[in-house]
Each structure stands twice: as C-alpha cells, then as structure tokens.
Amino acid sequence: MSVLNTINKDNLPKHLAIIMDGNGRWAKQQGLLRTIGHENGTKSVRITIENCAKLGIENLTLYAFSTENWNRPKLEVETLMKLLIKSLQKELITLQNNNIRLNAIGNLDMMPKSAQKELLEVMEKTKNNTQMTLTLALSYGSREEIVSAVKKIADKVKNNIISIDSIDDSIINKHLYTQNLPDVDLLIRTSGEHRISNFLLWQIAYAELFFSEVMWPDFREEHLYEALISYQKRERRFGKTSEQIK
Ligand code: IPE
Ligand code: IPE
Ligand code: MG
C-alpha cells in the first residue's frame, strides 16, 4: 500500500498553513546564491499546491514574505518580488487546471504596484474556482494584522456602529485578513526551525504543529504526506478530556 493510501480523506486539515523556510540555507549548502534557493522554492510551491488540491484540502495558506523580510538586502527583496510576479504569470494555468482560487493576506499596499496588479488579476480570474482556496501571505505580519484589526474595531466603537460589550472572538475574526478562512488545523514549518515568526498568531490557537527538517526547495509530496499522517494520529482535545472526545 502506498503512503498516500494511508491518508484518511475524511480527516484532512480544513486549513493547512505552511512556513516555507530554508531557501537560503539550501542554496548555501551547495555554494549557490540565496536567490537560486528562492527560485528552486517555487517548484516546491507548485508541487505542494497541486498535491493539496488533489487530496481535497480546502484551504492552503503559504507564508511567502513577512513584514520583517522587508529588512533583508535590497537585492534579495527585489528578486523575491520579481519571482512572485513571474510565478503568478506562470502558474495561473496551474490554478485554473486544478480549480484553485487565489487569495492574499497581508499589508498588500506595501507590495510593489506591479505585484499588486498581477495579484489582483490572478485573484479576479480564479475567483469562481472551488476546489481549494490558496492564500498567499505577503508582507504579512500577525502583529500588524492584529493592530490593524484593533484600529478598525475601535473606530466602529467610536462611531457607535458596535458596542464594547459586543466585542468577542467572532468580531475579532471578522476584522483580520483571514476573515473568510477557518482556524488553522495544521501548521508545517520546514528547515528545522522551531518558531512561528509572526505568522497567524490568533489563527493557530489550536493548530497542530509539525516541524520538518527538510529545506523548502526539497519539500515534496512524501514530506507533505508525512505531516498529514502525523496530524491524523493526534487527538485534538480543545481543552476537554480524552474521554469526552471519544
Ligand atoms: C524562506 O527561506 C523564504 C523567505 C523567507 C522569503 P529563507 O530565505 O528564510 O531561507 P533561510 O532561512 O535563510 O535558509
Ligand atoms: C519566515 O521565515 C517568513 C517566511 C517564511 C516568509 P524567516 O526566515 O523570515 O524567519 P526567521 O527570521 O528565521 O524567524
Ligand atoms: Mg528563513
């Protein structure tokens, strides 16, 4: 029996999020430029997207560029932006063939105009696709997202649109960039780093975490399956006892 057959299609994460890390180290290990690592990372992105859609995962969110990544060398940032634009143009066909809708979260106003334009175009063209929602986190920082949500809510209170007493989890959810997405069920981080790096802090409150030693450019279907199999072996108790779950 192949590994794929051991995955239970009825117990897939509804929302899988991935911190795609290790492009730079992957390149360095082979004496190559960091940017070559990013280029090779785009192949892992395509393979992962296709596999998630085929499996039936409804929501996949990829951490592609953080608010902190703006502090990287100018040349690296420029290369990443160019790669994003190139990938959007090249992979529109992949999204259409697999019935995938593109979505984006983050402080998108910070992105270069050309990248914003390309994003909007691909989002518009794929808006009626239903197999999977692919969300790219771009210029994304969870703290920035929470600050912006707090400002929007405070403004509504000030203008008597909502009362302080009505503020609850659901109101906060509605003001986050992820307002239309369910909570994260499984979070994968590659490259052996065990940290969250300002990604979806609110949304991962009860996510299962999976850390892979593999550098992102080497991430293939077998690594995805390994994470999913690990996820399916876990008991998610959400604060209850094991007996209550059974
Ligand atoms: C992830 O790989 C890609 C981005 C953060 C944009 P890195 O570029 O962080 O690679 P390492 O962590 O330096 O190896
Ligand atoms: C997190 O990776 C951001 C993305 C994967 C886009 P980083 O490589 O930027 O994170 P740190 O700096 O190692 O925490
Ligand atoms: Mg990194």
Amino- and carboxy-terminal Cα gap: 28 Å
Tally of individual domains = 1
| Broad structural category | alpha/beta
What is the strand content?
5-15%
Can you walk me through this structure?
- The model has no long low-confidence stretch (mean pLDDT 98).
- Strands 3-4-2-1-5-6 form a six-stranded parallel sheet, with helices on both faces.
- It is globular and about 55 Å long.
- It contains eight helices and six strands.
- The two termini are 28 Å apart.
- It has a single domain (16-232), classed as Undecaprenyl pyrophosphate synthetase (3-Layer(aba) Sandwich), CATH 3.40.1180.
- It has helices at 23-29, 34-55, 74-97, 113-125, 142-158, 169-174, 221-232, 242-245, and strands at 15-19, 59-66, 100-105, 132-140, 186-189, 208-211.
- Helix 2 packs parallel to helix 3 (74-97) and helix 3 (74-97) packs parallel to helix 4 (113-125).
- The chain has 246 residues and is an alpha/beta fold.
- Strand 3 (100-105), helix 4 and strand 4 form a beta-alpha-beta unit.
- The protein binds 3-methylbut-3-enyl trihydrogen diphosphate (2 copies) and magnesium ion (MG).
- One 3-methylbut-3-enyl trihydrogen diphosphate binds next to helix 1.
